[in-house]
Structure formats: C-alpha cells, structure tokens
Amino acid sequence: MLRVLILLLITALTFCLQFGKPEVKSVTNCWGKVTNSETEILTEIIVYNPNPIPLPLKDVLTEIYMNDLKMGEGKALKAEMPPGNSSLIISTKIDNSKIPEWWVTHVKSGEVTNFKFKGYVVFDLKITEFRYPFERSILIKTDLLSIVSDQKIKVGPSALTLKSLSFHWGKVEKDYTEVLTTAKIYNENPFPVSITKLRYSLEMNEVKIAEEIKKIETVIPPKAESTLNFTIKMNNEMLDDWFASHVENRERTNFKILLEFMEVFGSEIFVKSESSFETAIFGCYLADSTTTFGGSLKDLKNITK
User: Which CATH number fits domain 21-141: 3.40.47.10, 3.90.226.10, 2.60.40.10, 3.30.565.10?
Assistant: First the structure.
C-alpha cells in the first residue's frame, strides 16, 4: 500500500513538473458603471495556459489606492482557465464616500495624487501554486486655482475695473476646504463706491460645492484701488457627486467660480472665472456599451462578484 502511495505521489510530482506555467499576457482597465455611491472599474486579464487541460483559478484580488488611501477592491469567483489564451473580467468598486478623504490628501500634496491599481492572480495545482502579482501606478496632477480674470465692469452709475483676482488654498479639513480669494478693484468714478455684500458660488461640472452671501462693507475711494480679501468655503461632502460626474464626463471637469459684488446703489457686479481640467487614468469607458474588450458584459456575472 505504501509503495502505491509513493508511486502516486511521484507520478503527481512528475506531472506538476512537466506542467507549463500559465502567463498573464495583459491587464486592461476601463471605467464601468457609475452611481452616487460607487464607481466601477472593469479589468480584463488575458491569461495564457500552455497546457492541454484547464487550470483551476484559486484566487484573484484587485485593489485601488489613491495617495495610499484604499478606495476599493474587487474579487473573482473560483473558475478554470481553458487551454490557450482566455479572458478574465473583474469588477472593482471605488467607494465614493471616501472621495472627500482622498481630496484632503490631494490638495495637501500640492494637487498631486498617486493612483495605484494592483492585485494578483493565483492558480492552484494542489501540490503547488502559481501566483502572479500586477500593479499600475498613474500620477495625477491638477492646478485648479490657476484662474485669472481681469475685466472692466460698468454697472449703473458706477464704473469699476477688476484689476486682478487670485485664489489660494487655505485650510483643508475633512468637512471643508478653504479657497482664499483676493480681488483688487479700481474705482474710476469721481465719487466713492461702497461694496456691501458678496455672493459666491463654486461649481465643478455643475455640482455646487460652495455657496454663500457674505457681508463686506468696503468703500472704494474715487480714482483709487481697494483690495478685498475673503474666503470661499467648499463643502467636501459634495465631492463624491463631483467625482462621479468627472468619470461620467470622460474624466473632464469644468471648474467655475461665480462672484457677485453688491454695491450701495443696489447694482450687482457679476464676475465669472472658470477653467477646465482633464485626467487620463484609464481613457476607456464601458458604462454605456454592450460590449467590452472583445467579450460581452453578460459574461461578467459568471466570474465576478
């Protein structure tokens, strides 16, 4: 009996030694379905199995990190990879509720984010296993506050010139982000002009991140320039909605700041400063498509969870 067991063990070992190692040929990522709570990433892994029989897949794990903050993960159910090239599709979900926390790291890092997608594939041959790690890092840089607006404004009986408008980041906390704003306004009139209130709003892809009316009580002397300093307070809780819109808009965002200076005459001085930015994390969008990578989205339910 012992000889039989030894013989079977030797046969199994010989079989494993003759077994060809599978190879991960490529890893491709695309954006998938986007909701208010989650942003999906679809990953296709092309695996080459050089053996004449299917290989059992033991485990697949994917993880997403943004500035070392774990944003989500994906797993695949156990499956078998047939001989030759075959495709494994994994659904990884970003938890959108973590976007405000990531935003704090992005701004504090000088508007820089290291987006990291990593994971592994494990083939189980019972006696031994093949483990293939993979990783992709993308550096994301933005410059949101590089907005400059110089314009001459004439309202009612007064004529004012906005000489310069500058923005800088202030405090960045979990719940809010400060945008420190400086406006230099020149009064062309032979009489003083009083600015009594300021209304501001900040939008990203039409998602309103900030809005408030502030009292200013500033008098600009005739033929003189005055500097107005004020703070725009962003509501970080709205950033998850913005992130979803950014992905849905093919990684594009229109960043807009609206200012209304209200003077004593009852007139309003309206200023709009806007810019746009793009990212190129994946550059592939499958949310509205019925086909993906050369396979069908309906296959997803069979191999992912």
Answer: 2.60.40.10
Token digits of residue 135: 């990783």
CATH 2.60.40.10 fits 151-278, yes or no: yes
Over range 223-228, report the average pLDDT.
93
Q: Which residue, chain included where needed, has tokens 């070392």? A: 68
DSSP state of 4: H
Token digits for 143? 């410059």
Query: In 142-192, where do the E strands start and end?
Result: 151-155, 158-172, 176-187
**pLDDT, tens only, 53-88:** 888 888 888 999 999 999 999 887 667 888 999 888
Structure tokens at 86: 């075959």
State yes or no: pLDDT of 241 exceeds 90: yes
Q: pLDDT value at position 229?
A: 93
Which candidate, 164, 271, 261, places its Cα nearest to that of 219? 261
Helix (H, G, I), strand (E, B) or coil at 197: strand
% helix / strand / coil in the chain, to the nearest 5?
15, 60, 25
d(CA 34, CA 16): 43
Structure tokens given for 74: 């994906």
Least confident range from 9-18, 125-134, 247-256, 267-276: namely 9-18
Rounded Cα distance between 131 and 134, Å, is 10
Write down the residue that tokens 């943004």 correspond to. 66
Report how far residue 28's alpha carbon sits from residue 210's, in angstroms, rounded to the nearest whole number. 37
- Burial of 198: CB neighbours in 10 Å, binned 0-12, 13-18, 19+: buried
271 close to 136: Cβ distance less than 8 angstroms: no
Give the DSSP per-residue string, 230-272: EEEEEEGGGHHHHHHHHHHTTSEEEEEEEEEEEETTS-EEEEE
